[in-house]
């Protein structure tokens, strides 16, 4: 069961403030006025008076149909969520310290594709059995991968050993215009 964070807006006569700063649908300020005058204005225009910023003094109230306002807020939230998740994905490419050259190139090609999409990439070298005694091969492999991808990415952190995994993270480099 998913709970949505919902904001409760005060409408029309439920607005507790004595004075409000009134804004129309387009965002044009109509000034600070008593709540009774703002309600009368909303009634004349056939819209609702919605308190959008209750914490500031005086609170901001918008003259807009509440259903339309809720739709706009939901749409704004969805766009922000969609925009925020873009480029935030963390993809992982796994290697072994004694990987064949062709396999290495294939994994680099995949990492390159992830970086071009704007995703961050974790390069992981997994040591199996006694391979852990030869850490320098894993470090060399990661350095070689980072050098191959340096035109597309920057290394966020130096390779670090966590158990039997040697890990580093690459972020897409900023585009130079």
UniProtKB/TrEMBL annotation:
Biological processes, Gene Ontology terms: ribosome disassembly
Keyword Membrane: no
Name this protein carries in UniProt: Translation initiation factor IF-3
Family: Belongs to the IF-3 family.
Sequence ranges assigned to domain Translation initiation factor 3 N-terminal in this UniProt record: 12-78
Keywords associated with the record: Cytoplasm, Initiation factor, Protein biosynthesis
Subunit structure: Monomer.
Chief localization: cytoplasm
One GO cellular component term noted in the UniProt record for this chain: cytosol
DNA-binding as UniProt keyword: no
InterPro entries: T_IF-3_C_sf, T_IF-3_N_sf, Translation_initiation_fac_3, Translation_initiation_fac_3_C, Translation_initiation_fac_3_N
Domain Translation initiation factor 3 C-terminal, residue spans: 89-172
Subcellular location: Cytoplasm
GO molecular function, one term: ribosome binding
Role, per record: IF-3 binds to the 30S ribosomal subunit and shifts the equilibrium between 70S ribosomes and their 50S and 30S subunits in favor of the free subunits, thus enhancing the availability of 30S subunits on which protein synthesis initiation begins.
